[in-house]
Write a structure and sequence with these properties.
Elements: E1 5-7, E2 12-16, E3 19-22, H1 23-45, H2 50-76, H3 78-83, H4 98-116, H5 120-144, E4 159-161, E5 167-168, E6 171-172, H6 181-201, H7 210-226, H8 244-264
Helix pairs in contact: 1-2, 1-5, 2-4, 5-6, 5-7, 6-7, 7-8
Length: 275
């Protein structure tokens, strides 16, 4: 029987001179390419225009990149990056944090809603449907990079990340089959997309905050739990009772629950009522 899956995929797709196209970059871009048509369909059905989505997407891209980069720098290695601030701009060297990306998205969408007179929760309820697709793409990018790996495991679907030479407890990562935690998170995001899209089709988008509250609660509850199967990203996390990903997930879960309670008290609103 196959006891594990050997994962020896190159993170690079191809190179043209000094330019290298990587799987992570492609999948990060695909997160926006795939989601825009879905978001346009949702907006048309709810009485809005494609132009609204085009503008919204630009805000999303900027908010995601800036938030994810600053989140990585400030949450996981603040001493180094505050001492070497120019390094913050070197996104091509890696280092994006999903919790920071979440904060960046929330702030950028707030600015979008304020400028274009949209109801904030109305926008959040619809954007989380496609954010789930984006999350699935980005976690697949992590898998292609053989990064953010799981702990050693003997499950038959464990991956042996032969290209990952990080040291954990004095042992190189490639020595042990491990949980493919990136795949777990990617598949969960696919499940969230199907769930949220189905609920939206059945009219749940008319209840302000329901889809957003459900998404945040489920996603970050899962993130909290799956962290028990993952290796810590930074050494300082080894001294903490919970790792950084778990600490950052707790307030987001609480926010999601609070929004669900709020949504439970809201009447259905007409689809075209925006601001």
């Amino acid at each position: 029987m196959l006891n594990f899956i050997t994962w020896d995929v190159s993170p690079d797709i191809f190179s043209l001179g000094p330019v290298t196209v990587r799987w992570y970059g492609l999948l990060f871009a695909m997160a926006f390419v795939l989601t825009q048509p879905i978001e346009k369909y949702i907006y048309r059905k709810d009485g809005r225009t494609d132009e609204d989505v085009d503008i919204l997407t630009m805000y999303m891209i900027v908010g995601t990149v800036i938030g994810a980069r600053l989140g990585h720098c400030l949450f996981y290695d603040p001493v180094y990056y505050l001492s070497n601030p120019i390094e913050i701009f070197k996104i091509w060297e890696g280092g994006l944090a999903s919790h920071g990306g979440t904060i960046g998205i929330l702030l950028s969408l707030y600015l979008f809603c304020r400028k274009y007179k949209f109801d904030y929760l109305w926008v959040l309820d619809r954007i989380v449907i496609v954010v789930a697709v984006g999350g699935a793409c980005i976690r697949l990018g992590n898998l292609m990079n053989s990064e953010i790996i799981g702990r050693p495991s003997d499950v038959p679907w464990a991956f042996k990340f032969v290209r990952n030479a990080e040291m954990f407890n004095g042992v190189p990562a490639y020595m042990d089959p491990r949980h493919p935690s990136q795949l777990y998170e990617s598949l969960f995001c696919v499940f969230l997309f199907i769930l949220l899209y189905t609920l939206w089709k059945r009219g749940a988008g008319q209840i302000r905050g329901l889809l957003f509250g459900l998404f945040v609660t489920l996603l970050f509850t899962f993130r909290f739990l799956v962290e028990f199967l993952k290796e810590n990203q930074e050494a300082f996390e080894d001294e903490l009772p919970l790792n950084m990903g778990q600490w950052l997930s707790i307030p987001l879960v609480l926010i999601g629950i609070a929004v669900l309670f709020y949504a439970a008290r809201q009447p259905r609103t007409p689809k075209k009522v925006i601001a």
